Amino acid sequence: MTKDTIYKNPQAPSDFTFNSRVAEVFDDMLQRSVPCYHQVIDMVATLLGRFTVKGEKVYDLGCSTGTTILELSRRMAGREIEFIGIDNSPAMIDKAILKAEMLAGKNSIRFLNGDISTVELEPCAACILNYTLQFIRPMVRQSFLTRLYETLKPGGVLIISEKIIFHDLQINRAFIDFYHEFKKNQGYTETEIARKRAALENILIPFSIRENSELLQNAGFNHVETFFQWYNFASFLALKD
Ligand code: GEK
Q1: What is the C-alpha separation between 195 and 130, in angstroms, rounded?
Q2: Which residue of 120, 135, 137, 160 has the fewest C-beta atoms within 10 A of its own C-beta?
Q3: What phi and psi values does residue 126 have, to the nearest 5 degrees?
């Protein structure tokens, strides 16, 4: 796995984009930047095991290099799930296809290059949106989630993981500090952390637990809960009746 040193370089782009340079180091970047990354995938596998039936379609929207789908496919072997990963970064999709060729299992896996906010989706049993809604423009988040609700079959599940903010400023500050400590413990320097934070300004726009839950409820979901939280990261489960 290539180590992420992008923000060691003072010439690193001031606006974050998911280009080939990022795709190359992405697996290392995510593991060192998202607390409990693999634990959350493990929990998603357990949730899908409970709520998804054999032979169904599962979308991973903003699938990046395919880590989640490949892990889910391994965990759910025998369920004949049809996994479809979509990402609008061609470099991410290229990497995902390569990884899938090396790790091909029995489930069907497809990766598509497209914008998840506009691409046509087929009726499905589950949609996963891990750390991706935060990159969708706030203005279109409600209509996007409403469309996902409509795409899900009855009994379908939407799983969302996000970086979150808190309305209480003291708690918000403390949790951001804890997150920066986490990144330091993962080997990032204070300069790298500060440069990446500046590059993500106005690109990664986190909402609070309350705001995300309201979006999901307004989209039509009657059952909405968080199933995981690590300071300023949370995962949500939304069920369609
Ligand atoms: C994981 N889920 O490994 N359409 C399609 N893809 C998009 C869009 C869009 N409109 N906007 C952003 N992306 C993955 C990690 S990363 C999270 C997801 C992060 C894609 C973007 O290209 C990138 O691959 C992904 O969403 C976000 O669990 O980098 O913090």
Answers
A1: 23
A2: 120
A3: -155, 145
pTM above 0.85, yes or no: yes
* Homologous superfamily of the 10-239 domain (CATH): Vaccinia Virus protein VP39 (3.40.50.150)
List, chain by chain if needed, residues with CB within 6 Å of any ligand 1 atom.
Answer: 18, 30, 62-64, 67-68, 86-89, 92, 115-117, 130-132, 135-136
> Contact 126/159 with Cβ under 8 angstroms?
yes
- Give the separation between CA 59 and CA 23, rounded to whole angstroms: 20
> Are the beta carbons of 163 and 131 closer than 8 angstroms?
yes
Length of the chain: 241
pLDDT tens string, the chain, 241 residues long: the values are 888 888 888 877 778 888 998 888 888 899 999 999 999 999 999 999 999 888 899 999 999 999 999 999 999 888 889 999 999 999 999 999 999 988 766 669 999 999 999 999 999 999 999 999 999 999 999 999 999 999 999 999 999 999 999 999 999 999 999 999 999 999 999 998 989 998 899 999 999 999 999 999 999 999 999 999 999 999 999 999 9
Q: Which two tokens stand for residue 100?
A: 């899938």
Nearest CA to ligand 1 atom 19: 131
Q: Which atom of ligand 1 is nearest to the CA of 119?
A: 4
Ligand 1, from 20, 22, 25, 87: best to mutate by most atoms within 8 Å of Cβ?
A: 87
